[in-house]
Amino acid sequence: MTASTQGVLSKVRQMIPPMLDKFHKGQLGRVAVIGGSQDYTGAPYFSAMASAKLGCDMSHVICTPEAGAVIKTYSPNLMVHPLMRQSLLNDDEVADPEKVSAGIIDMLPRLHVLVVGPGLGRDPLMQETVARVIQAARKKKMPVVLDADALQLVLKDPSLVKGYKEAILTPNVVEFGRIWDSLDLKDPGNKKETAEVEILAKALGGVTVIQKGGKDFISNGETTLVNDLEGGKKRSGGQGDTLTGSVATFLAWRKAYLDKLWDIHGDVLKEDELIGLAAFGGSAITRESSRLAFLKRGRSLQASDLTEEVHIAFLGLFGEVDGETSEHKL
């Protein structure tokens, strides 16, 4: 890896909680993935399991009852809440997004981070429900990772996230282009590789954007990080879900760091850089998981193969983080 990437990873490591006897359940991360519908059950599972495998204490999935019944069979380790509803499956009643979202919003005090989008679909009731949840999370300054069909909300109403400094968007190439066009942004006309992500993040008022590609560019419009770690060469569906879950866990650890749950040694990280570092950490875990999985599976690689490499990727990038110190060892 380049010296620049190694330097950023050293900072990321500082915000990873050591494993201490004094911690109790929930302090090292309570993450909820909102997604999962009649047609899509894999994406929220991959996101929630990446978060759990990386090390968050409690990993939730908030989905429709139809999806919940399936996701529960994937793993008993996930807490599944069938609180979402789809319009097409509620013919006998007019489902109210205000009522549906209320049950989810009631859960927010129990959570640290939301991931919105994996397996969400474009059902109007689902979309309107999560828009209300995002608004409620924003009032609490709760970090939110938006991906996949949740990005439709940004296309429809950029003000939902504009200026939301705790929000992270993870668009693929097509989604990035659609958001760019919806904001009527212009070609920067220069050769700087990070120009577009910086323009988009600035246009959204400081939202952090992860522009995925041969390198991952991470920017809030002011500070930009470049992740040039090698990834796998297979682009199977679902790999982006590992990214959202991994970023979410680092965001949960950000809270633990800010709450000073352990003695910090060395330079103290600035609060305004922690969102970007969390995004970089999740990006690094995903790229390394992809690389390791591709070495084993080659062109047969599937999203589930990344899930099984998350912990190994963590150890390879950061080593064990134990004891009373958070000093980096990279």
Automatic annotation (TrEMBL):
Query: What is the top EC class of this enzyme, as a single word?
Result: lyase
Q: Which reaction does it catalyse?
A: (6S)-NADPHX + ATP = ADP + phosphate + NADPH + H(+); (6S)-NADHX + ATP = ADP + phosphate + NADH + H(+)
Q: Which residues does ATP bind?
A: 212-216, 231-240
Q: Name one GO cellular component term.
A: cytoplasm
| Binding, (6S)-NADPHX | 119, 172-178, 241
Gene Ontology BP terms? metabolite repair; nicotinamide nucleotide metabolic process
Any idea where this protein resides? Cytoplasm
Q: Which UniProt keywords apply?
A: ATP-binding, Cytoplasm, Lyase, NAD, NADP, Nucleotide-binding, Phosphoprotein
Q: InterPro entries per the record?
A: Carbohydrate_kinase_pred_CS, CARKD, Ribokinase-like
Needed cofactors? Mg(2+)
Where is the major localization of this protein? cytoplasm
Q: What does this protein do?
A: Catalyzes the dehydration of the S-form of NAD(P)HX at the expense of ATP, which is converted to ADP. Together with NAD(P)HX epimerase, which catalyzes the epimerization of the S- and R-forms, the enzyme allows the repair of both epimers of NAD(P)HX, a damaged form of NAD(P)H that is a result of enzymatic or heat-dependent hydration.
This protein is called ATP-dependent (S)-NAD(P)H-hydrate dehydratase
Organism encoding this protein: Conoideocrella luteorostrata
